[in-house]
Amino acid sequence: KDKRIVWGRFKPGSHILYEKYKDRASIYNGDFTQIQKNVALWNFQGCETKQDLEDSAFDIEGFLRDEFGEQFGVTEADSFINGNGVGKPEGLLANASIASVNSGGASTLTGDSLIAIYYELKEAYINNSTWVMARSTLKTIRTLKTAVTGEYLWTPGIKTDARPATILDRPYITAPEMPAIAADAYPILFGDFRRG
Q1: Residue 107 contacts by C-beta under 8 Å, 6 or more apart in sequence?
Q2: How far apart are CA 98 and CA 142, in angstroms?
């Protein structure tokens, strides 16, 4: 059964952040509104008895805790990326308000499209931004080459200064829940995911 949580949301109004040459505190006039969110509860249940847990030579409780934790993480990750908002969160790929960049081909990815995605993000979010993609998409990015010399555009981990591998100087993570490169798919997410 869905539970309901009411969160406060700040609605910005007019503001004065700083007035030159005056010693004045920042003023921000806005109001708070309330929004209502449906929250789905997930649970996992085992069918072991207390006697099974106490009398086993094997650590059943530890095994179940680890297994349930892993399955919960898999379910949660898939919902955060692909969820439809019905009994689970609305996933990032399902949210129509998130901007997208066309790669220029129905099922291709180019270095130019990565640069276009990078510069589509607002500057305030760049410093904490991260790329998210499936391993197959990462493989495609790693195999991008120059047309003239055939050199790879990206060589992660082959650096003398031992910096971590990045794409356009931003870190990346792989997520198996992300779709592969295909027509009408969104194989890459890029943004500051700490900001929501």
Answers
A1: 181, 182, 183
A2: 26
